[in-house]
From TrEMBL:
InterPro entries registered for this protein in UniProt: DYW_dom, E_motif, PPR_At4g14850-like_plant, PPR_rpt, TPR-like_helical_dom_sf
Database matches in PANTHER family: (WILD MALAYSIAN BANANA) HYPOTHETICAL PROTEIN (PTHR47926:SF399), PENTATRICOPEPTIDE REPEAT-CONTAINING PROTEIN (PTHR47926)
Pfam families: DYW_deaminase (PF14432), E_motif (PF20431), PPR (PF01535), PPR_2 (PF13041)
Designated name of the protein: DYW domain-containing protein
Keywords, comma-separated and alphabetical: Repeat, Transit peptide
Mapped PPR repeat ranges: 143-177, 352-386, 453-487
Any one Gene Ontology BP term: RNA modification
Sequence ranges assigned to domain DYW in this UniProt record: 687-761
Domain of life, per lineage: Eukaryota
Amino acid sequence: MLRAGFHPGLFLRNNLLAAYCRGGDMRHARFLFDGMPRRDAVSWNTLIAGYSSQGGSSARLARTAFRDARGGGVRADRFTYAAVLAACGRAGDWRHGRAAHGLAVVSGLAQDAFLTNSVIDMYAKCGMIDDVRLVFDRAEERDEASWNLLLSAYVCMGWPEVAVHVLVWMHRSGVKLDSFALGGILKACSELQGSEDVRRMLHGCVVKVGLDLDMFVGSAMVDMYAKNGGLEEAIKVFDCTPNQNAVVYGAMIAGFARLGNDPCPEIRIEAVRLFSDLLRMGVKLSRFTFKSVLEVCNLTNAVHCGRLIHAHVIFNGFQDDEFIANALINLYSQARSVSDSLRCFQMTPRQDVVTWTSMITAFVHDENFEKALGLFLEFLSVGKEPDQFTLSSVMNACAALSLPATCKQIHCYTVKSGLAQFTVCGNSQISMYRNIGDVEASKKTFELITCLDIFSWSAMILSYAVHGHEGEALVLLEKMKDCGVVINDNALLAVLIACSQQGLAEEGFRHYESMLSDYGCSPNTKHKACVVDLLGRVGKISEAEDFIMGSGSENDPILWHALLRACRIHGDKERGIKTGEKLMELEPFAVTSYVVLYNLYMGAGKISLAMKTRGLMRERGMSKEAGISWAEFGGSIHHFTDGNNSCPHNNAVHARLEELLVSVKQKTERGGTDIWELGFQSRKDGETSLARHGELLAVALGLSSLPSAAPVTIMKNQRISWESHETLKLLSARENRGIIVRDPTHFHRFDQGSCSCRDYW
């Protein structure tokens, strides 16, 4: 038209302006508007509506245009007010929205149902539910849209109970219920826990008004039932919905993903079949559907299937979606393929806090604790704020590394960030302090948690149990029952550990036998191993073996390891050798099994069999893992490898340890050769033999570096030897210091010449 020199009239210019606005090209729309020789109310309404539809900062331009229209003498109509109210609603600007509402009232247009609905929608989007209800109650005209907006406002506010009452009010007022109203209320009730009667009432209402075949309502009903454990009802609704589209399929797949951990994998994997049906139908899949089916693969550990779906994600161009990336990170983490998790993390352009947390958790799950902490530091360096789940994963990493100073730093950061109030952080903090041997800190954390859950109680009972406070653990269990907390398998495991530590065979058996009958918990391998340990601790080795054979887990090596420990402690060499041979069958590629059996043969004088075991180990290319002890002193982590003299403080540490041992030997009559095989014949011999026990060197450095009142905490990757155990008992009495050594199976708290394990480990 410009090239032809055609000068359109106002009607055509308004249509061109509307076309630009609908296309989102507000720059050319404004250029055309400014060049119009004459403008009417339609012109201004179109421009204001165009700015309003853009959202964000364009709301200010919409308000400016509205002000200019009024200043130019244009009489605003209901569409003008509706456009500016929509702009204020999208921007959450209730102050200007309320001013526009006031002008509409003064102009006499607010009585119109159309404008009343715009006002309700504006207040609802600004989260002002009281104003929504006030406008609705005082409205002179209402239509179906008014009721639906009121219903939607309560749904968006997260008040499903009130939304249900509004729906009943609508029905009694003779308002026709449509798919929008019922779909919204069904979505709200999907978050309403323990209201089965309400869900069935709504389902009946849907059938009564004839909307049970509506796809929108059908997908909402599927989602409602699936979120609340109604798997059979969800499937029935899905099967009865005609002309199922991608939305209905997506709702059903998401339903399988949201069913929790109760359904068996065979039932849940049905979601993958539905996904395959969608692929065969050639339907374009949404990001939401991909996310849901990947979550199903994660819950069922269907990694191969997940990889195939990952290929479809790439094919459909959704690999940059952060929600899908989170599901993929978790999937590969479950499969112990942390490299694939890291690749998905690095390929995600928009990494939110959930994405970072998923990757940190993946490192923790793969036992790459240093990398987890490193990624957390990188997360903080890019200016992001962690949530309670991020810090919970970081605490789990610190707990596994058992670094006291780092644990306390994370605790301080949690308090400063205001996230210490969350129960999930408190629970992880209890476990973190348990792993560094600070029971008092665990207790204080437990007492500060405002909303205790089952995991809080279980973590605290376990803290007491593993650190030799068995009486407190059993008292806390009784308190837990008095508070009406449901006992779960984790709490019962902690109680069994406490009973085992204290040698309470009868009470331990009573708790074990009551697991299924009184608490509805099926004993797992860990519970059974505790019973074996309990029987072994009181010397009932034969009964322990019979228990294993009748437990239904006779091929689980954890139970046989517990029996082997009992045989070693009580000197039952023959049964110990049989147990070691059994472990060789169950774990043919575990180095520990070969080492244990070799030591058993040597102890029984069966040299040829011991040499044969060592030869078999050599043939299979296996070697014993180096014993490493580590501790955190003075802000640095110190490592000591058994048999290695290359530590930075080698001479000073050896001299200090020799000095300690000599002083202990002079003050005790328990200086027999069994303990003092470490050797003192010469300085050279002493250094060579002492280097075999890295935990003793670490303790010597700790006693020299830490304040006299501070306990020395050491970690070791292998079971502590008898010689070191006895020596540390004597050192704790000599130095009047608490010494804590954590090995893979036990916490050893040495204090005044005794150990919390009661010499059974």
